[in-house]
């Protein structure tokens, strides 16, 4: 990656964070996009697929997440892995490993094309999974909402939380966040990690 490209990615990261998005989510999203551009550039993906996704999404930003999500979902699926291993090539003997090429593994992959009903069912399942995850991460019996209040500008990183701005655009930021209800709840939440799932 060139210094100019790294600077551009950094500026995009700052812009997304200023819109109130979580830093880890922004980093994960940008990592995937940089990988996509790299994979597109070296020929791991079908020619210019990322460029075509960007062009199809121009003026319709709501399509970009769907197109990229579908691309990564298909590439990360077990079905695609089995397909790629059966269609891919090998350099020499089996021990040297399999080689993923776009012409044999990606362009030939029968991408699923869900119906509208299937898309709606997938979206409903995703919403339910998100609600269950949120409930597990922040059980209502253990957390309470608190609102942090401090001065902020309507053109700053907290702009969507600014209330009652004056003429210069300075108002009061009211930022809602979840906090443990008490020390017992804080101790329980501290134990609730991915390592503690067993």
List the helices and strands and how they pair.
Elements: H1 3-18, H2 23-42, H3 49-57, H4 63-76, H5 78-87, E1 89-90, E2 98-99, H6 102-106, H7 116-137, E3 143-153, E4 162-163, E5 170-180, H8 183-191
Antiparallel strand pairs: 1-2, 3-5, 4-5
Helix pairs in contact: 1-2, 3-4
Overview of the structural elements:
By secondary structure, the protein is α+β, with helices and mostly antiparallel strands. The chain has eight helices and five strands; from the N terminus they run H-H-H-H-H-E-E-H-H-E-E-E-H. It has helices at 3-18, 23-42, 49-57, 63-76, 78-87, 102-106, 116-137, 183-191, and strands at 89-90, 98-99, 143-153, 162-163, 170-180. The two termini are 40 Å apart. The protein has two domains: 3-137, no CATH class; 143-197, no CATH class. The strands form two sheets. Strands 3-5-4 form a three-stranded antiparallel sheet. The model has no long low-confidence stretch (mean pLDDT 79). Helix 3 (49-57) packs antiparallel against helix 4 (63-76).
Keywords:
single chain; 198 residues; alpha+beta; 2 domains; three-stranded antiparallel beta sheet; two-stranded antiparallel ribbon; 53% helix; extended
Task: Summarize model confidence as the mean pLDDT.
Answer: 79
Task: Return the structural class.
Answer: alpha+beta
* Order of secondary-structure elements: HHHHHEEHHEEEH
Q: How many extended strands? A: 5
Strand ordering within the main sheet: 3-5-4
Low-confidence stretches: none
Kindly estimate the percentage of residues that lie in beta strands according to DSSP. Answer: 5-15%
Compute the separation of the termini in Å: 40 Å
State Rg: 22 Å
Number of domains: 2
Oligomer: single chain
Share of helical residues: 40-55%
Morphology call: extended
* Largest sheet data: 3 strands, antiparallel
Number of helices, where a helix is a run of at least 4 consecutive DSSP H or I residues:
8
